[in-house]
Amino acid sequence: MYKVREHEDYKESECIPSEQWNKVARDLENFDPSPLTANEGWKTSSAKISIPLGPKKQGNQIPKNLHHRSLIDVIKKVVEHDPRAKNFHLFPYEEYVKKGDQVERVYGELYSSNSFLEEFRNLQAQPPEPGCDLERVVLGLQFWSDATVLANFGSHKLWPVYMYFGNESKYIRSKATEETGWDVGYIPQLPEEIQDFMKHVSGKPAKQALLTHCRRELYQAVLMLLFDDQFAEAYEHGIVLTCQDGIKRRVFPRVSTWSADYPEKALLSTIRENGRCPCPRCFVQKENIHKFGSASDQRTRTTRKRRDNDWRRNLIRKCRHHLYNLGHALTGAFVKKLLDPFSLTPNENALSARLHHLGFDFHDILVVDLLHEVEIGEWKGLLSHLIRMLYSCGDNAVEEMNARFRAVPTFGTDTIRQCPKNVAEGKHRAARDFEDLLQTSHAVFEDMFGPEHSESISELLYVAAEWHCLAKLRMHTDSTLQDLVAVTVELGNQLRKFAEKIAPDFVTKETPAEAAARARRHAATQKTSTEPISTSSARKAKMYHLNRYKLHALGDYVDMICEFGTTDSYNTQIGEARHRLKKQAYRKTNKRDFELQIIKRGNIQESLLIIEQRVKEWKKKFSTHRTPSSPPTVDAEAKSNEQNSELEIDDSKRYTLARNPDASISIGTIQEKYSEDPCMRHFNVMLFDYILCNLRGVRYQVDGPRYPSHEATKLRIRGDKIHTHNTLRLHYTTYDVRRATDFIKSYLKFSSTKIQHQTDGNQNRSTIMLSAYDKDDNPKPNSFWYARVLGIFHVYARDIDGSSEDFKRIDILWVRWFGQDPDQQDRFGWKYKRTERVGFQEDDLEGMSPFGFVDPSDVVRAAHLIPAFAQRRTTELLQDSLAQDKEGDFAFYCVNRFVDRDMYMRHRGGGVGHTDQTQFTDSEPYELGESTMVPAEGLSDEQDHEDEMDDGVLAAFDRRTEVEEDVEEEDVDEEDDDVNKDINGDDEELSESGGEFIDDLYED
Ligand SMILES: [Zn+2]
């Protein structure tokens, strides 16, 4: 409602007087005392769960107040009434890019992915519904579910299930501000009374295992309510809906993806968390996870895939019969023997019960989760262990690491943010902070682990950062996927080397922060537990191992991207961002029955959004029908962006500079005042040469003046002045064909009388990259020159030999050049697992000035250079000069190619949106390395080696193949006893993953 009032077209005189607004707001909120009206589709139900209570006893409990919504009502509402559904892609397509002679498939959106295409083709192959000749289309539904704590203080939790439409572009869908998600249900917690009930029936308090079982039953019961008969009916026969283009179509809803963290994936797929076969998609054995990346590992994923087949369903049925009818104990040997080898839980799977007979398999929708599995999963684990290793080297090493992280320059508006003060302590780190640490650690950890291991650890960090970049690309092609395969194999090798050969050389214990956190956690558990738990904060020994589910998940990315499009389409981060809206809504409730109040607010919000969209549509229609005499409408977007009004907007240019300079300074003054400064030595000569080249349309030479000095007398500069700017906005097209802007700051601050260092901390944002040329002036593909922008100028100049009498405005960047590290030469990149190193050029090296001028439109992008911390700062390159940091420059800087995905693709080459000649050529595909294997006990690996690279990892590209399981003959091992530990750990999972902080948005 407030949006309405703030709208530009709202005139108070014609509408409701302001003093009545509060009343109207109250009325609106009180409107419709029951928010669960049929048209919004919300229902409150109870779900019956049956509890196995030992021989001949069985109880039913009915948790009430289960809020959920009819999926079909939401689908109808969106497809028929939400104007945003106009942009839905109802017809899938394959996307290709042609570069040179090469044609490659492009992967990105869900509606151009293999799974969507397959659904569509299958649908068209089916016989039509009797008497119906309507077009048949697929709605790809994407679900997110995750529990969240609603307030920083207090215990209220919400466990929502969100639904999104994969037919909408992921670029819109993944923006929290677009609010394209729909709440479809809230999963309740197990009611307290259940304990009383069980005590009443069996005479003793329920064991954890039984409560865990009840929680799983409840979860499936909620899914049964969500995916009701109406949904199954629509799944099979479709529903006829009038789409936004006015055409009636038969719409078939399909469950495309389900994004959740690992504990919830386990719940959904009715498997036991961290059991013998911890993966919800395949039967990989926990002890084989360290083979990650190898051919045998990849084979397991395809040949031992979990399927929702008769075998699985019969097994569960049999188990439940023994549990409920014959009274076997839940934790007894019988149940364990039956289920533990496959880590299954004795719960009927709701999705299987509802949709299996229609050809649906719930294992197929469980997508990878970059946020929990990598950023705050595997990467966090590796970083923590590196920190433990540093502690074992002494506290100084940890201090040094903290200092280095703090000294990493920021980049972009929030691409790399200022590092936390104490990385080792690990307090208050958001998921996106971990991403920043991953993108910069290859430079930070340089030479920190002694001569024996530093090199190997740098390689590992390089490969980890590269894997992360590739896994997070928003647009893939066949060749980038090939690279991801190769990098995955290498990451496996590197991690095994680290775990087997490097980590054991350090005596690692918990860090003090970890020990304290464990003690706190245990103290909290002790309050509720009867068993004694050690709450000592003495640091325990901690080793690095690889057999974790999260690591295993890293091997599924290539397959997932082929099947469902790129990871940004189904990252759990989208759901985490939506949690924020729920938290905002919660704050406005009176905290009693808050779920209902959140639903009520959500309903109003949804309706307002649709109204807003419609108003926009009408306005558009209205404005196109206006008579030509009426004044042109101002684009609201341009108007809102007020700062643009003072900018020189020129579409033909790659950059924007303000029309009015921040300062103007006379060339004579600079020359006189700073004649001693090395950066001024050839300032005039080079500046005049640059301007003359520009006026005469001649290419300016970077390595020396083109014109003899007497030519400068033919140049006229208006007022003998340069006009300076603080910021250059540089526009570019990203690899995934989007528009983006870099902000480049001037390193020096100019006033009319003097030049000084910037004091606003932005001097780090002054590094740029330009396309590099070889000796014969040909562009070198995918390689760059780097420079620090000392000043951003414009001048008005005229050539008296020229034809024009007018002064021409020329924009100029005054730069200090970086040169390649001569010792490194070309030994960087994937082949050497190192980043490029550059350093400022020495003064007057071979007669060449380390300073120069460049045209702003030649700049490719802003660059992120991280000091090579192993070498100290020096002032020897330039004696006393404004062009260097007060405390001196670092001898070298690492070029951070991992700072964002666009930068990575520029270095790699082959970005779809990168069409400039120098970046046109694709890089050679990464060579697929040999996979190293650590022989596991009792297993012959010789066979694995035989066909290591022939059919192994590349098989990920093949379409899914249905393979019969050979799991039935598995040995039964009864050693696993962690049945109690799984979903009870839910709270821990929340706190471990940082609760609040996960929701922080990423840069892209
Ligand atoms: Zn698996």
UniProtKB/TrEMBL annotation:
Compositionally biased spans, kind Acidic residues: 940-951, 963-1004
Q: What is this protein called?
A: Uncharacterized protein
Q: To which species is this protein native?
A: Sistotremastrum suecicum HHB10207 ss-3
Q: Which InterPro entries match?
A: Plavaka
Q: Where is this region: Disordered?
A: 622-647, 940-1004
